[in-house]
Design goal:
Blueprint lengths: L2 H4 L8 H7 L3 H12 L4 E3 L6 E3 L1 E2 L6 E2 L6 E2 L14 H12 L7 H8 L3 H15 L9 E8 L16 E8 L4 E5 L5 H11 L5 E4 L3 H4 L9 E4 L14 H18 L7 H13 L7 H11 L5 H9 L1
Parallel strand pairs: 6-9, 9-10
Antiparallel strand pairs: 1-2, 3-4, 4-5, 6-7, 7-8
Helix pairs in contact: 4-6, 4-11, 5-6, 6-10, 9-10
Length: 310
């Protein structure tokens, strides 16, 4: 039986559900408070006691019922010090997780009514949440792709004429990990392979000379190659999975974003990888990414005070 037919479809999260769950900023703030501090119970820095904090009317904070010390759930998150409403932030996260090939900042501007500059900055912050370090397992496919370049018959995905290599490693019917490289030499590829793969991993590639060097990196990796000049598959040896991912990324960047700056290429790849890695997960991508806003936080004043007292 085809494995794809046995995977249940991902749960849908409609706009109607979003409007019911997050009708206003208060509902969004309450969600963040409960997720960061279950039950609304948090350690009061001044009292040194765990207490249930209550909402301060008209402000984005909660207060200790005894000493009145204020607790800010937005501190350290991507929403910190933002003048944009939380409802708009949440809706942007929903839009970015509801598409297969991405959504442009111009479309976000039209959907939410914010300025283009605000839309672009919000999307940049959301992509920070999409970054993840993976340790892949099982048989994997490995291939490098090139973005940019001055070929007249190819779309220039990057601004500028220099070609930028990107290494992609994907599990068979599983997750993908992408890495922008300074060059396509073995000195750039091998450290990434050592970071992403377990020892003695079965690797399938297209015969790239740089990737061939993984045989000798001291981790007992097995390597099988396919010669694309003779065909795209040789038994189990093929790179159709990673080639399909690169096709999705390049078509998406060309069709949605047209071009991206080199300094932002990794963040765009993180966005595509995040969605790709969750295509078989039943829970909606929106709820998965929204939860990351509560635990991928920077140290706030509260954490710094607690560290000084300990």
């Amino acid at each position: 039986m085809n494995r794809r037919q046995t995977i249940p479809p991902q749960q849908k999260y409609t706009t109607k559900q979003f409007q019911s769950e997050f009708p206003n900023d208060d509902a969004c703030l309450e969600y963040l408070m409960i997720k960061r501090f279950p039950g609304g119970i948090a350690l009061c820095v001044e009292c040194g006691v765990d207490r249930r904090h209550y909402r301060v009317s008209g402000r984005t904070c909660y207060a200790c019922p005894v000493c009145g010390y204020h607790l800010f759930p937005l501190a350290g998150t991507i929403f910190h010090k933002s003048t944009t409403s939380l409802t708009t932030w949440f809706y942007v996260i929903k839009l970015m997780t509801s598409t297969r090939v991405g959504i442009s900042a111009k479309q976000i501007q039209r959907e939410t009514g914010v300025t283009y500059k605000t839309a672009w900055r919000m999307m940049k912050q959301v992509r920070v949440l999409m970054a993840e370090k993976l340790k892949l397992q099982g048989a994997v496919e490995m291939d490098e792709a090139y973005f940019g370049g001055s070929d007249s018959n190819k779309p220039q995905h990057l601004r500028g004429k220099a070609k930028t290599p990107v290494l992609g490693i994907v599990e068979r019917d599983g997750r993908v990990s992408t890495h922008v490289l300074p060059d396509a030499s073995k000195d750039s590829i091998l450290p990434v392979v050592g970071e992403v793969l377990h020892p003695r991993t079965m690797i399938y590639s297209d015969g790239s000379k740089a990737i061939e060097q993984v045989r000798w990196m001291g981790m007992s990796h097995k390597l099988a190659t396919v010669n694309h000049s003779k065909g795209y598959k040789d038994g189990w040896a093929h790179t159709n999975t990673i080639d399909g991912f690169w096709s999705l990324v390049k078509r998406g960047i060309t069709g949605v974003y047209y071009q991206v700056g080199l300094e932002y290429l990794q963040s765009y790849l993180n966005e595509y990888a995040f969605r790709y890695n969750r295509r078989h997960v039943m829970r909606p991508m929106f709820t998965q990414l929204l939860e990351r806003t509560t635990f991928q936080v920077c140290p706030s004043v509260r954490e710094e005070k607690l560290a000084l007292r300990s």
